[in-house]
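Reader question, answered in our methods column.
A reader sent in the components of a multi-part assembly and asked whether the whole thing could be modeled at once rather than chain by chain. We filled in our standard form and ran it. Here is what they sent:
COMPLEX SIZE: two components
ENTRIES:
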Amino acid sequence: MRAVSSVIGRAVPIDRPDIDTDQIVPAVWMKKIERVGFADGLFQKWRRDPAFVLNQPERRGATILIAGANFGCGSSREHAVWALRDYGFGAIIAPSFADIHRNNLPSSGLVPVVAAAAVVDTLMAATTADATTEIVIDVVRRVVSCEQAGVQEAQFFLDDAAHHRLVNGLDLIDMTLQLDARISDHELRRPDWLPSCDGVVHTSSTVG
Amino acid sequence: MEATTLVEKIWDAHVVDRGDADLLYIDLHLVHEVTSPQAFEGLRVSGRKLRRPDLTIATADHDVPTAEAGLAVSDAVGARQLQLQIANCREFGVELHPMGSAGQGIVHVIGPEMGLTQPGMTIVCGDSHTATHGAFGAIAFGIGTSQVEHVMATQTLRMAKPRTMAVTVDGQLRPGTTAKDLVLAIIGAIGVGGGTGTLIEYRGECIRALSMAGRMTVCNMAIEAGARSGLIAPDETTLAYLEGKQRAPKGDQWARAVEHWQTLRTDQDAVFDVEAVLDAGSVRPQATWGTNPGQTVNIDGRVPDPSALSEPAERGAAQRALEYMGLAPGTAMRDIPISTVFIGSCTNGRLEDLRAAAEVVRGHRVASTVRALVVPGSARIKQQAEQEGLDEVFRSAGFEWRLPGCSMCVGMNGDVVAPGTHSASTSNRNFEGRQGVGARTHLVSPESAAATAIAGHLVAAGDLN
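And here is the structure of the entire assembly that came back:
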């Protein structure tokens, strides 16, 4: 995975709390079997409204999304992250995120920026007033700045594990596979009563 | 020894490696057709094996058509996904209960009914309603597709230990009030972000009195309060449900398992990071009025007035919700005409739910203005319900009796609510467009859904006549 040390760019403000993953990408997009090609699904229903912020020409090319609290609640679908990524976003700034979505974002190199509500409000207001407002997210130092909004190196929360992964561009599976012996040790200690699956594709009337 | 919570006990017993986030061993990986194709592909591309096929089980639920007429998947994209699942499971040696098989059903329904879901386990699935399995005293949570691939390759997950939240429900539910009403009331009280960053342990007299079906309903919707999951300590009710189930331990293993399961409880002096308390006696049958599950009122109440809300973000959200729902503040909930009723889903598609709904329906007819569907949670439940004659109760009253699947909860299989119309649904999410473009969803209990189908408007079973 590509290392991400900063995200710099213009932003799209969506001043709503509790934006759920069904809004970020509707369920019909989950029928795809690929990991790419989700850009048109991003906020598909809301984009039907010509006045929706994503449809404003001056917002094209924005790389940062600013949203209300509890962003990405609901379904665990990572397709929501793929839609945000394919559209061109590299970071989401919000006062809080739903847990699963916050964990999913770094898997595609997107940065969940958990900033203080006052900072989010200031950035939201500035970028709403002026679409050319530029925001600088320093991922390494976990600070966000915006000259036009008067925000200087405001600290944001990014958990240490996600930070380590993003900044170093690490493949999580590779990292874990290095601990193979530890995993095997644990497997030896598992109680013998734990259930197991039979590995069979049960067609028609067989019951597993 | 330091007093610990149930969550901490289970968590600590599964930590393979400690770090900024812990590496957690996963005892059971549930897989469905929608969030797994890219994970299987990832394994193939990187030449990795699926580490523990014997701890992995798959079924088809999201895409499957439920029309009684047959099993043809009319949409080519859905059909491709189902075919691919069969090929993937064959290639990687994964147990699969595909569409049309006797073990098929919603992934969160078949785990428990097979006895695969047991106390003290760690269970994951690429589906947020994995929380359901917490009803057995397991740590069970939803994950994204990259994590699905990680579990396939390593049988572990890198996860920060969640904070703990206790939701204590004292007292008893009043007659006519259900586990669904309770969990909606809980979400209404703590908010859709009220559990963020936590894993909820439901406790208290009311929770202890719930059946396993009721506990599954309550844990299922922990995610709708923002929590990663919810769980309930195992007790006699849990053991009685599990004993004799196909994949539950037998003989000497059962005895040793029970001995261990009895240690799975929060110590008396353990401290939770967050606590909430609710009086079960204050809960009335609920119905949601808005576009998130926390926007709920008593079903005999009125649509609230957003201008009465002090928090600006909440006020704005309520106004947008009412606009989407086409509702005016102050409207009596029972005056909202309902054109679709859906009984089913991983929240309320179990046999107990169907029995309760059938009791309400018996001797009545579905209103002429209503299309009503019953979608059993699994093929086994469908079969059991038919043995009890429930299908006949529903059919003769004018309900459609369908094949098992997620169906109208997520609207991926063609079962959708018409734009601009209102549904009463026993599912878990009333998000904009969740049940179809422009669909206006009201979440209710199976009993209220049945009564609503008969009345043609939102009503609790007790107020039907």
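What stands out: The longest strand of chain B covers residues 163-170. Chain B has a mean pLDDT of 96.
Send us your own complexes using the same form.
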